[in-house]
Write a structure and sequence with these properties.
The complex is a heterodimer of chains A (128) and B (461). With 128 residues, chain A is mainly α. Chain A has a domain of 79 residues. Chain A is 58% helix and 0% strand. Chain A has 6 helices and no strands. Chain A starts with a helix and ends with a helix. Chain B is α+β, with helices and mostly antiparallel strands. Among the domains of chain B are: 81 residues, Immunoglobulin-like (Sandwich), CATH 2.60.40.1870; 98 residues, Immunoglobulins (Immunoglobulin-like, Sandwich), CATH 2.60.40. Helix content of chain B is 21%, strand content 23%. Chain B is built from 7 helices and 17 strands. Chain B has a 4-stranded antiparallel β-sheet with strand order 1-2-6-5, with no helix packed on it. In chain B, strands 4-3-7-8 form a 4-stranded antiparallel β-sheet, with no helix packed on it. Classes of the chains: A mainly alpha (128), B alpha+beta (461). Chain A: Keywords: Cytokine, Disulfide bond, Glycoprotein, Growth factor, Secreted, Signal. Chain A: Pfam families: IL7. Chain A: It comes from Columbina picui. Chain A: One of its GO terms (cellular component) is extracellular space. Chain A: Belongs to the IL-7/IL-9 family.
């Protein structure tokens, strides 16, 4: 009876609608103190190392900037800005033209940032 | 159909309820919130500690069972991360009686899970930054500071050149006398001082160090003790000994500086002052006389070398006679040089001395014993030339001879005789120093006049 299947499968869309959806928003919220402490004691050192490593590649800019996005750190949107920057930096992990150490350090900083902010990225599984 | 629809509705609601209850997939927690607090109690009594940056950027986790598990039971410890909807676990490596795992992420919250063949997995939350065990300090050294009577203990830690625990450790220094009880000191710095007055004199001590996170962010346990360092305290120093040592040092420094200054002064003033005072130079006669005598304005030769005066006419004197000449004998008439009143004494040959005839000083009077040449004699006297021959005393000759008071014919005065010089053998010229001779008076020749010949020329002004 075709009606049987229609009566069953309409539940799936309902489940999809009613099931708790994990949104890509960060969950740290207003826990700025915890964010600051983790940044000062752990994340800041890794960021400094990444900056020092970036100095070696200062003259090696992209010849063909494609879809370059400018990240603005707007007021009350700092966490979202950092999330977007970290998620984009994770894309470099698979770029073979960049040195392995630099890619590894960039990934470490990105993942550490997302961890501190309790954020997620789209297609984060693949990046990680 | 309606009945089937109602069944499906109930079923969907039930499934939805279960989905909400269980949350993420893979969760086996009874609580349903992902934690294992109310799970089955287990023998999950393990002790773990983490070591940050133990190798490059990797951190490590080391766990061991507080109570050894029963034999014939294989246990597996795993470190799990909750990522998105997944629960990613990494099995720890078993090393003897401990389980070891290295990782890079120290920010995320982790779980330590135990798996066994007989029991289901049991997990427990774990914060890596709250169980940090620093690395062992090393290079413990003891230095005695004599002036302050203190013992400086300094050491090193590998975290000084790492990033997370740098300046975030507290160090504990333990010291004891030989086989005594340990005493401890805590300091956040890499050196401490022990006062000598608090220690026994001339005793052997032992010291060791360990570290721990200071608790601001990182917490954990003490590290292992460092290697012990032994040292011996000094004997009691006498105050006078110290004072005498200080005085000795000061005196040594002053003596050295004084010797250096003396050497410099001696080297500086040796030639100019010291040597002339110690070994005075004997005066040089020539130089002394040259300094005493005034240099003539004109180009006069200042020399005692007779060869330099070859151009000078030298009037030889046979002998020296008494001063009995007439005053009127010498009359300056023709020759310009005859302005000088001259007196001759004997019949010896004479030569004009041009040097004497200084026109600037016509008052020069010279007395000498010499032989005038005939030409000069006549020139002076204004008479015709007559030769004063031997034994030939003419009128003119007589006058001449008489004028000079020379006995002509008696007592053996001989004009032709070779001029016999005075006792000094030199013609005597009276030195005149700008003063004229007393007229009509002839000074008796003496030895002093015989020596004053060349120098008198200098005084003719």
């Amino acid at each position: 009876n075709p009606a049987f299947f229609r009566s069953i499968f309409w539940v799936v869309p309902l489940l999809l609608v009613l099931s708790p959806v994990n949104s890509s928003s960060c969950t740290m919220g207003n826990k700025t103190t915890e964010i600051r402490v983790k940044y000062e004691n752990i994340l800041s050192y890794d960021i400094n190392e990444l900056v020092n490593m970036s100095a070696e590649y200062r003259d090696r800019c992209c010849r063909k900037p494609r879809n370059s996005k400018v990240f603005f750190c707007n007021d009350t949107q700092e966490i979202e800005s950092l999330q977007s920057m970290a998620c984009n930096m994770l894309r470099f992990f698979h770029k073979q033209k960049i040195s392995k150490d630099f890619r590894w350090k960039a990934a470490l900083v990105s993942c550490g940032t997302l961890q501190v902010l309790q954020c997620k990225c789209e297609r984060q599984k693949k990046e990680k | 159909v309606l009945r089937m629809t109602r069944m499906s509705t109930v079923l969907s609601i039930f499934v939805l309820f279960l989905h909400t209850t269980f949350g993420e997939s893979g969760c086996t927690s009874v609580d349903g919130d992902g934690t294992f607090g109310d799970d089955e109690p287990d023998n999950f009594d393990i002790n773990c500690f983490s070591q940050l940056e133990f190798k490059d950027s990797y951190s490590s986790l080391t766990c061991n069972f507080m109570e050894p598990p029963p034999d014939n039971t294989n246990y597996t410890l795993a470190l799990c991360n909750k990522e998105d909807s997944n629960y990613v676990c990494f099995n720890m490596e078993k090393r003897e009686d401990a389980y070891f795992l290295q990782f890079t992420d120290i920010l995320s919250n982790k779980d330590i899970c135990m798996d066994s063949e007989t029991k289901r997995r049991v997990c427990r939350s774990l914060v890596v930054t709250d169980m940090v065990k620093p690395e062992v300090p090393f290079n413990v050294n003891v230095t005695y500071q004599k002036e302050a009577n203190e013992y400086l203990i300094h050491y090193s830690t590998p975290h000084s050149w790492k990033k997370y625990l740098q300046d975030k450790l507290i160090h504990q220094i333990a010291y004891r006398q030989e086989e005594g009880t340990w005493k401890t000191i805590e300091s956040p710095y890499l050196q401490v001082k022990l006062l000598g007055k608090n220690l026994e004199n001339d005793a052997s001590y032992e010291v060791k160090v360990r570290s721990q996170p200071n608790g601001d962010f990182f917490r954990g346990t003490w590290s292992e003790w460092s290697a012990s360092k032994s040292f011996r305290t000094t004997r009691e120093q006498n105050f006078m000994e110290n004072y005498s040592n200080v005085v000795l040092v000061i005196l040594s420094i002053l003596g050295f500086m004084l010797s250096v200054v003396m050497i410099v002064l001696i080297g500086t003033f040796w030639e100019n002052r010291i040597k002339p005072a110690v070994w005075p130079n004997l005066p040089d006669h020539k130089k002394t006389l040259e300094q005493l005598c005034k240099k003539p304005k004109n180009n006069f030769d200042i020399s005692f070398n007779p060869e330099n005066f070859g151009y000078v006419h030298i009037h030889k004197v046979d002998d020296i006679q008494a001063k009995t000449e007439q005053e009127s004998f010498l009359q300056p008439s023709n020759a310009p040089e005859t302005n000088l009143p001259e007196k001759f004494r004997s019949g010896s040959d004479l030569k004009m001395i041009p040097a004497m005839t200084d026109k600037s000083n016509p008052n020069l009077s010279v007395t000498y014993g010499g032989i005038w040449p005939n030409e000069a004699l006549h020139k002076i006297l204004g008479t015709s030339q007559t030769t004063v021959t031997e034994g030939n005393c003419g009128s003119s000759t007589y006058e001449v001879c008489h004028s000079i008071g020379v006995p002509l014919h008696d007592d053996g005065f001989n004009h032709s005789s070779t001029p016999s010089l005075g006792p000094s053998g030199q013609p005597g010229l009276e030195p005149v120093n700008g003063d004229t001779m007393p007229t009509g008076e002839m000074r008796s020749p003496n030895n002093e006049e015989a020596y004053v010949t060349m120098s008198s020329f200098y005084k003719v002004q």
